[in-house]
């Protein structure tokens, strides 16, 4: 993404090709296949292209791209009057790395989670990425469901503050 923003056309094409594979999987799981999947992939790639200069390199690229994809999906459902429940904070499908993914893209999530204590990192991964319940994640961590809920809440709050601090630092810098 950074090379693409800097004008490297080959890097930009490579990014869009890799992203299109992830987007097809993302939309196909939510739309049961069909022509709409490819339309949404193209709409999302176009939006990424148009908004590429708004990407903040201090933040994970995958989260930025996932947000664009989610809003394109929601817009599609609105246009078609489809009612579905889709949690906005569900990054698991989008962040699941295919085996051919470049190692530098895998580091986004690890880099952000590294700012948390080990127990909180594990809870975020278990609940938000692997889909475990709070009771299951708490049992794995050796704490009660209530303690897991509090710890997860604190972890998400800390991640939000970290993201906001990074944005504030960038604006000041």
Automatic annotation (TrEMBL):
It holds the Pfam family Sigma70_r2. Residues 24-81, 112-159 form the RNA polymerase sigma-70 region domain. Belongs to the sigma-70 factor family. ECF subfamily. This is Sigma-70 family RNA polymerase sigma factor. It comes from Phenylobacterium conjunctum. It comes from the Bacteria. NCBIfam families: PRK12539.1, sigma70-ECF. Keywords: DNA-binding, Sigma factor, Transcription, Transcription regulation. The lineage of its organism: Bacteria, Pseudomonadati, Pseudomonadota, Alphaproteobacteria, Caulobacterales. InterPro entries: RNA_pol_sigma-70-like (IPR039425), RNA_pol_sigma-70_dom (IPR014284), RNA_pol_sigma70_r2 (IPR007627), RNA_pol_sigma70_r4 (IPR007630), RNA_pol_sigma_r2 (IPR013325), RNA_pol_sigma_r3/r4-like (IPR013324), WH-like_DNA-bd_sf (IPR036388). The keyword Manganese does not apply.
């Amino acid at each position: 993404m950074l090379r693409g923003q800097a004008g490297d056309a080959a890097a930009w094409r490579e990014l869009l090709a890799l992203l299109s594979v992830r987007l097809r999987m993302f939309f196909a799981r939510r739309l049961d296949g069909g022509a709409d999947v490819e339309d949404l992939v193209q709409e999302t790639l176009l939006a990424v292209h148009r908004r590429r200069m708004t990407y903040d390199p201090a933040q994970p690229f995958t989260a930025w791209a996932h947000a664009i994809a989610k809003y394109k999906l929601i817009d599609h459902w609105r246009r078609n009057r489809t009612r579905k429940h889709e949690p906005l904070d569900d990054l698991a499908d989008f962040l699941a790395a295919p085996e051919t993914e470049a190692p530098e893209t895998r580091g986004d999530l690890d880099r952000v989670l590294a700012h948390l204590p080990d127990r909180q990192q594990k809870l975020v991964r278990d609940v938000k990425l692997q889909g475990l319940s709070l009771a299951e994640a708490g049992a794995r961590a050796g704490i009660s469901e209530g303690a897991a809920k509090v710890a997860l809440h604190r972890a998400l709050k800390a991640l939000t503050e970290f993201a906001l601090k990074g944005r504030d630092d960038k604006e000041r810098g």
